[in-house]
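dumping the sequnces here before i forget
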Amino acid sequence: MHELKIAEDLSVIVLDTALDNNLSKVTKVNVIFGQMIQIVPDIFEFAFREIVRNSIAGDAEINIEILPVKMKCTTCGSAFQVKENRFACNICSSTDLGIIQGKELFIKSIEGE
Amino acid sequence: MKNILDRNQNKANEIRNLLILKKILMVNIISSPGAGKTTLLERTCDALGAKFRIGVIEGDITTDRDAQRLKKYNIPIVVINTEGGCHLDSNSISKVLDCFDLDNLDVLFVENVGNLICPSQFDLGETFKLAIVSTTEGDDKPGKYPMLFREAIAVLLNKIDLIPYTNFNFESFNSDLIKINSQIPLFQISCTRGDGLTDWYKWIADQIIFSQL
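..and the predicted 3d for all of it:
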């Protein structure tokens, strides 16, 4: 249910941005979530729609892109995608890793008229 | 590109800076409902209450029952009722920090709302997150909730005295945990019987002292 709180914060950014840019209608909202955030897209979209229902973003299409988890091995330097929760380098098996991607909670763009 | 949780993150950064300035360790305790967060705090207050100045923020969906259980320790406790919300956020923590005398506090335990997903996504400005799981929940928690076990700095496996009465498979639990976070310290404890708690007290005392350096 963290989807609700994130959708609330997103709605504030969307409506503020629309106001700043003199939009009368928001037509599309593009967001990016890392896989580790464990967002369920259907729940997120439902929450967002409920929050913005009677606003200028009420009919906006919401486009959710989910990014897989990628790590970089600090021992051998190789980058790899984490599969089946295995947080170890697939080349040298080191578990000394830095995250490259997977915890994003970004608003990419807003479209409107 | 803008972070959707910027507001939460900015407030969390403010809290973290304040706590560093005041040399206070803040522990964000995350578990399922009933895993033993409050019992762990009771045992920890018993063991370390004379040595360290402890404060507690109790995150509860409703009621102040957990806080009532800790009243006997005469420590500052503030309850945050989330009124249905499934996690605490940095704004709610920021609002109650004024209730504590931060010049007279060594450690602030935050008992988050019982939930394994949502609380792990929200930075409260804590020094670190601590995960508690209990054997009665099953051995699949690390595999199902990897974010928490990546984010936490240590894991407490509670209710090990009940393993004979459950189908909890420690090897399976441990292998999932190591796959996700191979370096993470694991404390196998029973808060009711006392197993493993001495190691926990020593570890958390070291963390408190480290924050004061």
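Helices of chain A lie at 2-20, 41-52.
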